[in-house]
Amino acid sequence: MRWTRRGLLRLAAAGLSGLAGAAVGLRLWRARPLRGAERGVLDAAVDAVVPADEAPGALDLGIAAALAAEAEGDPRLRRLLREGVRWLEREARSVHGRGYAALGEEARTALLLAAAGRSGPPRRFFETLRREVLVRYYGDPGVWAAIGYRGPPQPRGYPRYWAPPDDA
C-alpha cells in the first residue's frame, strides 16, 4: 500500500473525529450528577459538619440534596464534590477497612479534618463543604429558634456586628 499525503490527512481526520467523540463521551461522563455511593458519602460528610442534636442537623434540612442539585448545574462544584467524596471513600477504606458512610461520627469527622490538613482537592473539598453547609445551615430561619437567635444574619439584622448581641 502506498501512502499519499491526502490519505494521511484522511487518516488523521478520522483519528481526530474519534478523539473528539471520546472527549464528548468523557465530558458527558463527568457531567453526570452525584448518585448512589457518591451521594451517600456526601450525605455522611454533610452530617459530620453539622450533626443533629437538640436542633436539626444539616442533613435533616436537606443541605446535602441542595448541594448535589446545585452541582448538577455547576461543573466545577460537581468535579470538586466528586473528587472529595472519592478521596473520603478511599481514605475510609484504607484506614478503617470500610466505606465512609458506614463509619461512626468520630471517624467521619477525623477524616474530614484529615482532608482539611491536606493540600489540593481534599482541602478545597473540605473548605467548600464547610462553607456551603454552614452558610446554608445558619441561614435557615428554622435553625435560629433552635439555637436561640432572634434575628436575621448580616447584613440585614445586626448593625453593630463588631459588638456582642444584647439580651434586650
UniProtKB/TrEMBL annotation:
InterPro entries: Gluconate_2DH_su3, TAT_signal. Pfam families: Gluconate_2-dh3 (PF13618). This is Gluconate 2-dehydrogenase subunit 3-like protein.
